[in-house]
Amino acid sequence: MKFVMVPGGWQGGWVFDAVAAELRRNGHLVEAVTLSGLELDGPADADRPSNLDTHIDQVAEIIDRSNETPLALCGHSYGGMVIAGVADRLGDRLEQLVFIDAYVPDDGDSCWSLTSDTFREMFIVGARGDGRWVAVPDGLDPRARPHPLASFVQSIRLEANLSDVPRRTFISGGAWPGSPFVTLTDRLRNDSGWQVHEIPVGHNIARRDPQSLAAVLHALPPADPPQRS
After folding, report:
1. 216 to each of 34, 172, 197, how far by Cα in Å?
2. In 6, 31, 114, 136, which residue has its Cα 20 to 30 A from 99's Cα atom?
3. Where in the sequence is the domain holding 151, given as residue range(s)?
4. In this structure, is residue 226 part of a structural domain?
C-alpha cells in the first residue's frame, strides 16, 4: 500500500519520518507532504500565504499523479481538513482515509469552527505579529514553521460524501487537555462506517509513539480496489 501523509499545523513531512521508516520496513510506500508555506527554508512568497484551497490543490495533485494502488491518505490535526477536501475530489482513487487526531469536517466547516477555544486563542495570539502567519507554539520541534492563518479560518467546500472512500479510520490521541476531538471520537465509535483506534499519548502521535501509529496503519484491513471512472 502507498501512504500519503499530511501533517498538522506548523509541521512538515519530517514529522512522519519515524512512522515512514517503520512502514517502509513492512513493505509499504510512503510520501510525506510538506504543505505550501511550511517549507524548512521558508515560503517562496511570504507576502502571499497559502490557504486551505492551496493545500487541498497541492495534495490532490500528488494523488492524481500517483500510479500506485491501493492508496491510503492520512492527515494529522489540521491535515484532516486537507484530506477531506482531497477525498471530495478524488475519493474514487482512495482505498483508505485516515484521520490522525484530526478534524473531520462537513461542508462549510473550518479548522476555526471545529477547534477548541484553546486553539482559537493560540491562533489569535500567534497571528498578532502580522495578521497573516501564526507563530509556532512553544514546545514544537525546531523545524516547525509559522502557519498561514488563512488556512485555519477558511471554510471548506464539500460536495461528495466521505463514505465514498471504502475504509475510513480515526486514530485518537486520547483525551488530552484542550482536545477538540473528544466528542468527535465518541461519535465515530458509534458509526459503523468508521474504525476508531486509540493511542493515548496526546495529540502529536507521530512524534510520541511512531511505532504504535505505524502498527495501526500497517494493520488497516484491505478494501476492494476503488473503481475509477
Report:
1. 22, 11, 8
2. 136
3. 2-218
4. no
